[in-house]
Design brief:
The structure holds two protein chains of two kinds.
Chain A: H1 3-44, H2 47-51, H3 64-96, H4 100-114, H5 117-132, H6 137-162, H7 165-173, H8 178-189, H9 191-206, H10 210-213, H11 233-241, H12 246-275
Helix pairs in contact in A: 1-12, 3-6, 3-9, 4-6, 5-6, 6-9, 7-8, 9-12, 11-12
Chain B: H1 3-51, H2 53-59, H3 62-65, E1 69-70, E2 75-76, H4 79-110, H5 113-126, H6 131-157, H7 177-201, H8 205-213, H9 218-247, H10 250-255, H11 273-280, H12 287-324
Antiparallel strand pairs in B: 1-2
Helix pairs in contact in B: 1-12, 2-12, 4-7, 4-9, 4-11, 5-7, 6-7, 7-9, 8-9, 9-12, 11-12
Classes of the chains: A mainly alpha, B mainly alpha.
Chain lengths: 277, 325
């Protein structure tokens, strides 16, 4: 066995061991984070979390108004973001195809997909909050819708392009107009993919904090007024975690647990839908 | 022509026209929405330019090189947050890139086949944990850990070396640039490694098989065949991770320490653009203060836009490489 061969073998073994170690190392950190979130979160969970309002400093309470606020804003964001995203995705896949305009929009969409969410928050602040003169749940919902939009567009575009052209040709050949081909043939064929996109979008916005900070802000009280500041879980976590009060810390962990659990469930369900076929 | 037949013909014509009208409306509706999405990015930049106008006008180019941050005297400069943003993101990359490469290597070449997909999915799922969780964990668990076990030994060893020591000195507070960099690294590793894995999987198997056939080791196949072939896309993936790290808000805000002093020590509290905005936005009590924060947002927008655009262009090159063969 010559020296060169031995050195190559050793490099190989060292390199491969390093990659195994790196994988274990990363999983260790990530599971540490998950473990902390779950143990601290479960310890902090009790009935008060879902039945009482966020408390004043230093006293016991729950997250009911924050849970409600997050729910309302996510629902509105989905109602705005998913139809818009699906329509834009339809344009890219069915009309724009490989054209220059579609190429540019795909490029911009991919940048929006990775753009810092804090920037979207500032944008909606300038667009909605400043002209209105006050923070509002509407502004929060719009910010979340904009963050969800690129996810839905990308997934819709990709799954529609996977639908075989035979289906389109067959529908056109029996005289169906293009819009009915899209809405009644290709979109139903791609429905599981589009649904995955919407679910991934919801998972993406459920934990977003920065954009809500400048739009919906927070509210210590129960509020159903969409035109005023509204409580939500992420901003409550932010506020409570940075406070000096033990009770608030434990509520922050409870909120963190709820959000993380929801996101993991959503991501798993969306993958199951995608892989079922 | 009999009346009935004439009616028939015009009905058909009408039906045809309605079909075309439907198509016209539908196609243009989707096109308008798609173009609006495209304009969104432009509007985002423009809105922050308008919001930050006052600060830009008042401080001029000095805004970018001034270390001042005095809400009372209404004197603001962006240098400290810009420095912190870049240094924390670069620290994160220094840790995350080699680790992500190793994970991608493990997932594409090394792991038993049955393990590859579940492990990949687990790592992708972990990439979805919201950043505020990383931040909270960093504040309550990791910062105390750093203060107790990591920073004192660094202080005692690296801190005493001349020149280099300046980067590693200061009291062990737990929070600071290094802590922020490590947490950012943990956040972007799942992200970069998933992209790298997808990119490595696109390398043609023929290339790898030929290298193996010539007697190359796994490590050599990765480093001398797969990596050169996918180089542009790998760098693109790294840039996407960099874009994430630069704009990351919550994870950094909790652990960077929020200090407006320019310090070169990585163990000292610092600040980043996103952290400054998130921390001080609701406290901004004067139009100049608010405008300075939004001007910072504009700077962040430009930095991340450039980084992400480069990333996308590099990633697209692998796609065109595929198309050419």
């Amino acid at each position: 066995m010559n020296v060169l061969y031995l050195r190559r073998r050793i490099t190989n073994v060292v390199g491969l061991s390093l990659s195994l170690l790196a994988t274990l190392f990363t999983l260790f950190w990530l599971f540490w984070i998950l473990w902390t979130t779950f143990t601290e979160g479960i310890a902090a969970l009790n009935w008060r979390v879902v039945t009482e309002m966020t408390p004043p400093p230093g006293s016991e309470g729950g997250l009911l108004n924050a849970i409600y606020g997050s729910f309302v804003m996510i629902v509105i964001a989905v109602l705005i973001g998913s139809p818009t995203g699906i329509l834009a995705g339809i344009y890219l896949a069915e009309f724009g195809k490989k054209g220059a305009l579609a190429g540019v929009i795909r490029f911009i969409n991919d940048i929006l997909l990775s753009a810092p969410s804090i920037i979207i928050g500032l944008f909606v602040y300038e667009l909605v909050v400043r002209p209105q003169g006050h923070f509002s749940a509407w502004a929060g919902s719009i910010a979340l819708a904009i963050i969800m939009l690129p996810v839905v567009i990308r997934v819709t575009d990709e799954t529609l392009r996977l639908v075989p052209d035979n289906l389109r040709e067959a529908a056109l050949a029996v005289g169906a107009p293009k819009w009915s081909v899209v809405l009644q043939v290709t979109l139903p064929a791609a429905v599981s993919g589009v649904l995955t996109g919407v679910l991934l979008g919801i998972a993406r916005i459920s934990g977003e904090t920065a954009p809500l900070l400048f739009t919906a802000l927070n509210n210590q009280f129960w509020s159903t007024n969409l035109n005023g500041p509204m409580a939500n879980i992420p901003v409550s976590i932010f506020q409570f975690a940075l406070s000096p009060y033990e009770q608030w810390h434990s509520l922050a962990w409870a909120g963190g647990f709820i959000v993380t659990f929801l996101i993991l469930i959503l991501s798993i369900v969306s993958r199951m839908i995608l892989f079922r076929k | 022509m009999p009346v009935a037949e004439e009616n028939q013909v015009s009905l058909e014509r009408l039906a045809k026209r309605r079909f075309r009208l439907g198509d016209f409306l539908f196609q243009n509706l989707t096109a308008v929405i798609a173009v609006l999405v495209g304009l969104l990015l432009l509007a985002t930049g423009a809105s922050m330019l308008v919001g930050g106008q006052e600060a830009f006008q008042k401080f001029g180019l000095g805004f970018f090189v001034s270390t001042a941050w005095d809400p009372v005297a209404k004197n603001f400069g962006a240098l400290v947050p810009i420095y912190g943003t870049i240094v924390s993101a670069v620290l994160a990359l220094i840790i995350a890139v080699p680790v992500s490469f190793c994970i991608a290597l493990f997932l594409t070449e090394l792991a038993p086949v049955w393990m590859r997909r579940p492990l990949g999915i687990i790592i992708e799922l972990l990439a979805g944990i919201p950043s505020i969780i990383y931040g909270m964990w960093g504040l309550f668990v990791f910062a105390p850990f750093m203060a107790a076990y990591v920073q004192p030994p660094i202080n005692d060893t690296l801190g005493n070396i001349p020149l280099v020591g300046a980067f590693f000195s200061g009291p062990p507070l737990g929070v600071g640039m290094l802590t922020a960099g490590i947490i950012l690294a943990i956040m972007i590793i799942p992200f970069i490694s998933s992209i790298m894995r997808d990119v490595f999987l696109q390398a043609p198997p023929v290339l790898k098989e030929s290298a193996y056939g010539l007697g190359a080791t796994t490590w050599e196949v990765m480093f001398k065949v797969v990596l050169p072939y996918t180089r542009a896309a790998v760098v693109g993936g790294i840039f996407l991770g960099l874009g994430r790290a630069l704009g990351e808000t919550m994870a950094v805000t909790f652990v960077i320490g929020n200090a407006h002093d320019l310090t070169f020590s990585l163990l000292q509290p610092a600040n980043s653009i996103a952290a400054v905005i998130a921390n001080e936005f609701t406290e901004a009590d004067s139009p100049t203060y608010l405008s300075a924060l939004i001007a910072l947002g504009f700077v962040l927008f430009i930095i991340t836009f450039v980084v992400l655009a480069i990333a996308k262009l590099l990633l697209l090159r692998l796609g065109s490489l595929e198309g050419r063969k």
